[in-house]
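User: I'm putting together notes for a lab meeting next week and I want to include a structural view of one of the chains we've been expressing. I don't have a solved structure, so I'd like a prediction I can at least talk through. The sequence is below, exactly as it appears in our construct file.
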Amino acid sequence: MGLIIFLCIGALAGWIAGRLMKGSGFGLLGNMAVGIIGAVIGGWTFSQLGISIANGFIGSLVTSVAGASILLFFVGLFKK
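Assistant: Thanks for the context. Below is the predicted structure for the 80-residue chain, given as structure tokens.
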């Protein structure tokens, strides 16, 4: 059950970040990939900055969206 929740958070975070940074999503699998990679980037970035977000669904979603937005920002820099 935890894996399903993890994938749902990844898909939702990828979709939100895609809407924030690009204006559209990347499809279900693309959103999941962006959200999961974003969760890793967001977790690492927040720990380096000393920021602690509450655990749970909302905390995981905020961390994943922030990380996915960072990922999409840098991908956008290299695409141009």
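A couple of points you could mention at the meeting. The radius of gyration is 12 Å. The longest helix spans residues 27-49.

User: Perfect, that's what I needed.
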